[in-house]
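User: Hey, my collaborator sent me this sequence without any context and asked if I could get a structure. I don't really work with proteins. Can you help?
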Amino acid sequence: MNKEKTLESVKAHWDSWWVPGLQEFVRIDNLTTMVDPDYLTNGKVEKAMVQVDGCIQALGVKGLSMKVYRAENNLPMVVYVVEGSEGVEKNVLVYGHLDKQPYGDGWNTDPCDPVIKDGLMYGRGASDDGYAPFSCMLAIKAAQDQGVKMPRIALVLETEEESGSPNLIPLLKIATESIGKPDACFCMDSGAFDYNQLWMTSSLRGICILDMTVQCGKDAYHSGEVGGIVPETFRIVRQLLDRLDNSETGEVCPELLVETPDWKQKEAEYMVSISGKEMYEKYAVAEGAQYVNQDDLVKMYLGNNWQGNLSITGAGGLPPIMMAGNAVRASTSVRVSMRLSPIMDPARAEAIMKEKLTTNVPYNAKVTLSAGHAGAGWCMKVLSEPLADAIKQAGAAFYNGKEAGSYGMGGSIPFLSELGKMYPDTEIVALGVLGPDSNAHGPNEMIHLDYAQRLTCSLAHILQSVAN
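Assistant: No problem. I've predicted the 3D structure and written it out in structure-token form, which is a compact way to encode the shape of the chain:
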């Protein structure tokens, strides 16, 4: 393929099709099933599907068909198939998702108002993962415009990734007639270490989420009356959480630690050599605050994407400060989110966490665990030489001569492990636009438009290479 012609095709549709299409997607408030109990009945997921389909159908991709598959609970999954060139037997799966994270607080703009400023588009779902169908189809269109041979391509758009993908594998099995057996799979839901080159993801961590409620009193009592008599449940929560990680260092308990293989150690040293302080300085902190392992960047890198770490992502039973009374509350609840090493068995990790949180509880307080969700991590296999070379060359073509690189991400895409089991002979590559300040699960989520355009061009060449 000719890179100048690819860039010309992509730019021809960028401002008139890609950007406004993604903006319309951002305007739809189709939050994921985990936070919207009416997700399957309020029509918002269907609205997103219709909006995306309208854009795709208007692009003029040849050999295109679409089918919607549904799980037992009626949850939809969309599959677009673009037939390959005559005589080409290769088959490709491209993955994206349509559901969105909750908004949270701290936005500078309306999360459903796609504002563009300084080359960045802000809005929930822009980078995670609404751009995927637009970039995939525009990449195919750019290749078709040059008349090159192309593989058969199945674009799968899931609608519950942000809720842990419980129905994805059954839906993929139902959709076998459309998907077939992929020779290569490109997941477009991952990230970029920076915006200077094309990045692949070498590893992703697993995750285990538990909601824990600790209760002592039957009711709330005046703190002056019962302080020193009825245990404070927040204190018990603190004690239990100390069993999961070291509150001074953040290191997880020994049972959740794993050995670091040589390849990951070398990767860490390389990434530190090319990034230096940029590894952490791209994440703003309060004035004077320090980062974890700030004086040992290799340890910081491994702590971020190879070892586990604990976050408390939500709490219950705590009134807002302006409404707080002098009371010893009956209970305290926290959402315990444990990122796991890419090679840690999530079922084993969940069992370890449950035992630590429920055994020998101080004061024999009542502990209730719920909302369990555990997903496996993933490590990319060594790619075949043709595909690895094609990705490197595509990266160099559209990122100022810099070949594509790979690095570990601290986030989780649990279904990639399941895809590896389902398609053991498939080469799986994770790409994406979740770079610095993209804030996929936080306020002010944004997509770097120039990087997304370069990724779209690169994807066109990578997809075409599979046909060879």
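In plain terms: The chain has a mean pLDDT of 96. You can pass these tokens on to your collaborator as they are.
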